[in-house]
Amino acid sequence: MLQLLCCRARAAAPLRSLLYPRCNKTAEIWKRSRLYKSPGSHVYNSSQHPGNALSRIWSLTQRALRRSATRTSQPTGGTLKFILGPTILTVSSRLFCHVAHCEADENNNTPAEVVGKNPAPEFKWHILWEFVKPQLFALIGAVVLAFGAAILNIQIPLMLGDLVNVVARYLREHTGNYVHEIRGPALKLLGLYGIQGLLTSGYIILLSRVGERVAADMRKTLFTSLLRQDVAFFDANKTGQLVNRLTADIQEFKSSFKLVISQGLRSITQTVGCFVSLYFISPKLTGLTVVVLPCLVGAGALIGSFLRRLSRLAQEQVAKATGVADEALGNVRTVKAFAMEDRERQLYAHEVNKSCEMNENLGAGIAVFQGISNIALNCIVLGTIFAGGTLISNNELSPGDLMSFLVASQTVQRSLASISILFGQMVRGISSGARVFEYLSLEPSIPLSGGGRIPYHSLTGRVDFMNISFSYPTRPGHQVLKRFNLTLPPSKTVAIVGESGGGKSTVASLLERFYDPNSGVIMLDGLDIRTLDLSWLRGQVIGFINQEPVLFGSSIMENIRFGKPEATDAEVINAAKQANAHRFITSFPDGYNTVVGERGVTLSGGQKQRVAIARALIKNPSILVLDEATSALDAESERVVQEALDRATRGRTVLIIAHRLSTIQGADLICVMSNGRVVEAGTHLELLSKGGLYSDLIRRQRAEGQK
Ligand SMILES: Nc1ncnc2c1ncn2[C@@H]1O[C@H](COP(=O)(O)OP(=O)(O)OP(=O)(O)O)[C@@H](O)[C@H]1O
């Protein structure tokens, strides 16, 4: 039972008071626990230093919080995890902490250690450069055009001033033709507006092309890198968070990248250029502006950052509500089976109401902010006109200069305001980019390609597990296999049985090289499988069928072809026939083109299993691994599937992991596993006559069957 207590980590006192009483009460925990920090991970386990474990934990916690608080104002999403016997303290750099109380297993190992990632992944400029390099010409073009548009923006106030001066002179002197007088400067200004419009469109087009291509390249590279990672990586990282890096983080990075280059460049150029113009128009008015403007922009930036924090909280709340809906809709069958629709509706309504309230508050905050900033900006205009009027009456300034000054100072205000917003956006973009880059350069510990292949005609399919010891990387303290030995003779069927959690499926995972053993070797035809090409091993040598086969939401034809993409239709149909699936597939109106729905939801368990068998058989594997392939089926489906399996296993090396002992009595060898080791081995009759663990299991299963 997991009990999560949340507290704001910044408030040190509550965290301290939460820890001390817990630890005082459970002094035993300290004696039992060990302290380790695995390299690269952030998992700490307590009592290599039993005496000062608490103070060490506390200082690590504070250091982690300080680091995440000072590096960036944005949440980074990393976690540190402290394991104190059955208590796990998770400190996340989102500045929250959870104290999770977990039951320890029989070895005093906590069941829920999750390896956290670096709390603040670094932004790597050289990786960004690799993505930007192919778009360099377009990027330089965009920068030049944006710079040109900014320079013109500096010219416009001056030309507006010229125009006003012409009008003012005409009004004063009433000489000449008004249209003739004004035509020249007006046309110049119009031309300037036109060129500026063209430059602006040009740089936006180029920049969005650069942004989209960089983002698309990043998505493809990140997806490829994620697919390359080994299974242990996915044990330690939630898929939702990985998908978030592909979508939200890259989106955020792209927006920041485009905004910082376009608006950043424009705003800085305009601010500097317009300030120079202001100074040349009127040093006295510029002096006044220099005093007032930064104060207003500073106040605006402060309120702006407060509003952005509100906006982030409101977005997080919307994401939370979406999470509730996602979970309920994703598990709709379970929700319905437990008649929990009402509870889920209430839960969703509660979260939506909270997000509605937060968004309303945010809306009110924005409204007040905009109202106040409108008043302040208009006051600046009034103040400038007032002071400028005085200068005009003293003949120190012309009306046109005042006009130029007003427009240029408005441009400066806008530019300064956008620089302050851009700064926040840049920080967000950098932390999103860092999260994306973190996995781009991650090398899997088990590489997918490279290594040798055994020619098909000489492959016998003999497998030897030699002295294998293994712990899952996410649970290094819990040894699942202990000096495990087993031989799968060529073309024979070996079954593994034993208590639940004894490590049977782990043996299959090691053969597939989802993980590598900590010690010992697995041999295929006398060769260490670590020296063999992994894509070849998984793609052509080993066929894997498990208890709950997962199908893709495409047609049956495509699902079977997943086992061998180049297979012809005839090969697919042949594999389906071998798997006893042809008849039910052709009974559907769309036959092999029937779309099976998300994860194969429109097929029955037995039908799904037979499609999965066809998918495994189409690659004609030398070794077949059946991990409780029939245990989820009813008697009739099991009979049909078993028939298919009997046919499929002929002439192959087969490893069966079985719960129901009735299904493996014909196996050439049955191994009984207990506590990570093989404790008995022999045929069904040999093991029965021994009267050991196997006959015990048979007796228990028979008794359960009779209940
Ligand atoms: N991905 C994983 N990460 C960490 N521990 C795991 C993982 N998968 C399994 N384990 C643990 O390894 C041990 C052996 O699990 P395994 O699935 O191999 O047992 P099993 O004999 O196949 O059990 P069952 O008959 O119930 O399927 C269990 O204690 C389990 O909790």
Features:
binds adenosine-5'-triphosphate; 6-stranded mixed β-sheet; single chain; 21 helices; 707 residues; 15 strands; transmembrane helix; alpha/beta; disordered N terminus
Small-molecule binders = adenosine-5'-triphosphate
Taking the alpha carbons of the first and last residues, their distance comes to 30 Å
Reported for the largest beta sheet, the result is: 6 strands, mixed
What does the average pLDDT come to? 77
**Percent in strands:** 5-15%
Bin the helical content.
55-70%
* SS-based class: alpha/beta
- The assembly state of the depicted protein chains is single chain
Nutshell version of this structure?
The chain is 60% helix and 12% strand.
Question: What secondary-structure arrangement, pairings included, does this model have?
Answer:
Blueprint: E1 3-8, H1 12-25, H2 27-32, E2 43-45, H3 53-71, E3 79-84, E4 87-92, E5 96-101, H4 125-132, H5 136-173, H6 178-228, H7 231-236, H8 239-281, H9 283-330, H10 332-337, H11 341-393, H12 399-440, E6 463-471, E7 479-488, E8 493-498, H13 504-511, E9 519-524, E10 527-528, H14 534-541, E11 542-546, H15 556-561, H16 569-578, H17 582-587, H18 605-617, E12 623-627, H19 635-649, E13 653-657, E14 669-674, E15 677-682, H20 684-690, H21 693-706
Parallel strand pairs: 2-3, 8-13, 8-14, 11-12, 12-13
Antiparallel strand pairs: 1-5, 3-4, 4-5, 6-7, 6-9, 9-10, 14-15
Helix pairs in contact: 5-6, 5-8, 5-12, 6-8, 6-12, 8-9, 8-12, 9-11, 9-12, 11-12, 16-18, 18-19
Keywords: ATP-binding, Ion transport, Membrane, Mitochondrion, Mitochondrion inner membrane, Nucleotide-binding, Potassium, Potassium transport, Transit peptide, Transmembrane, Transmembrane helix, Transport
Domain ABC transporter: 463-700
Subcellular location: Mitochondrion inner membrane
